[in-house]
């Protein structure tokens, strides 16, 4: 297995460094950049399948640097699609996001829901999805689009709402929990469930190329319920402060995302297995076990 990590001057492999020795020996880690077309051609040459998860994902930063999101999410995806086409790979799994739907016009959201770019990030992912679709339709490239709904779990960046709330509750030096909007509803899916769906997509016999498959639990919770549940799990309660610079512009905020996962059940044989509360417990357990000992905990 060959795995691409983003090149950086520290030679940092992120959480891949936590892999066991036996598993680590089965993976070839290559430093690179999806914006480098020649490097992507070399990377995928001779590969049977490609899982494309490379992207800029921080929505707030997309307001500040939209061109960076176009370069990485759109041009980077195009580079990989071209490379996969030339290499005649047997399967290309492209990672989408539930953010492409914008605020739900109906619930649960199925794959026929309109795509709405409510942030530069969402717009860049819509463009990438459509490129993937176009390659399947135009060139017969075996591209499948997997669309996760709010994946969470241990090791997630503190940019995300669940680990940032949990970390603030657990940190004794923090007196207040600073949050953004507490009203948006999200369909939170545990990371092992999402990962399992990608593996199923690699093996599925009748994967619909050029089409999207939603990955979500089919149940949504507002952020204030997540906050309350994390307070119960940690046994810690602190004053909650809404910070305006963490709140999206009104027309950009996605108010509710709840998945219809029927297609994932039918095509992949996939159903979520980890309940939301148990997943939140795993996050708290991980943060507690790594507190003060793992500097990567604070890599945002």
Describe this structure in words.
The longest helix has 22 residues, at 66-87. The protein has helices at 21-25, 37-44, 59-64, 66-87, 120-139, 161-170, 191-203, 223-234, 262-268, 276-290, and strands at residues 2-6, 28-32, 49-52, 91-95, 143-148, 151-152, 177-179, 185-186, 189-190, 212-215, 221-222, 240-242. Helix 5 (120-139) links the parallel strand 4 and strand 5. The strands form five sheets. Strands 3-4-5-10 form a four-stranded parallel beta sheet, with helices on both faces. The chain has a two-stranded parallel ribbon with strand order 1-2. The protein has a two-stranded parallel ribbon with strand order 6-9. By secondary structure, the chain is of the alpha/beta class. It is built from ten helices and twelve strands. Helix 4 (66-87) packs parallel to helix 5.
**Sheet bearing the most strands, described?**
4 strands, parallel
Poorly predicted runs of 5 or more residues: 293-300
Global mean pLDDT: 92
Q: Can you give the helix content as a percent range?
A: 25-40%
Q: Count the DSSP helices.
A: 10
- Radius of gyration of CA atoms, rounded to a whole number: 19 Å
Estimated share of beta-strand residues: 5-15%
Query: Roughly how many Å apart are the termini?
Result: 27 Å
Class inferred from helices and paired strands: alpha/beta
Total beta strand runs:
12
């Amino acid at each position: 297995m060959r795995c691409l990590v983003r090149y950086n001057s520290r030679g940092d492999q992120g959480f891949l460094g936590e892999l066991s020795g036996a598993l680590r020996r089965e993976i070839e880690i290559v430093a690179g950049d999806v914006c480098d077309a020649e490097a992507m051609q070399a990377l995928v040459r001779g590969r049977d399948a490609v899982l494309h998860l490379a992207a800029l994902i921080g929505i707030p930063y997309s307001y500040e640097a939209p061109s960076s999101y176009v370069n990485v999410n759109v041009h980077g995806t195009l580079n990989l699609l071209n490379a996969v086409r030339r290499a005649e790979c047997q399967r290309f799994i492209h990672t989408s996001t539930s953010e492409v739907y914008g605020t739900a016009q109906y619930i649960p959201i199925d794959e026929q829901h309109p795509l709405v770019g409510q942030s530069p990030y969402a717009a860049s992912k819509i463009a990438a999805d459509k490129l993937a679709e176009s390659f399947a339709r135009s060139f017969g490239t075996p591209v499948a689009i997997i669309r996760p709904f709010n994946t969470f779990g241990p090791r997630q960046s503190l940019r995300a709402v669940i680990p940032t709330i949990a970390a603030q509750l657990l940190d004794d030096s923090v007196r207040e929990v600073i949050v953004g909007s507490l009203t948006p509803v999200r369909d939170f899916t545990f990371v092992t469930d999402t990962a399992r769906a990608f593996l199923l997509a690699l093996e599925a016999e009748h994967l619909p190329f050029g089409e999207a498959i939603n990955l979500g639990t089919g149940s949504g919770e507002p952020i204030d319920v997540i906050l309350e549940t994390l307070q119960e799990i940690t046994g810690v309660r602190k004053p909650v402060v809404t910070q305006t610079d963490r709140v999206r512009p009104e027309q950009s905020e996605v108010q509710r995302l709840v998945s219809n996962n029927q297609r994932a059940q039918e095509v992949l044989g996939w159903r979520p297995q980890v309940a939301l509360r148990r997943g939140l417990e795993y996050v708290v357990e991980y943060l507690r076990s790594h507190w003060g000992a793992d500097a990567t905990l604070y890599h945002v």
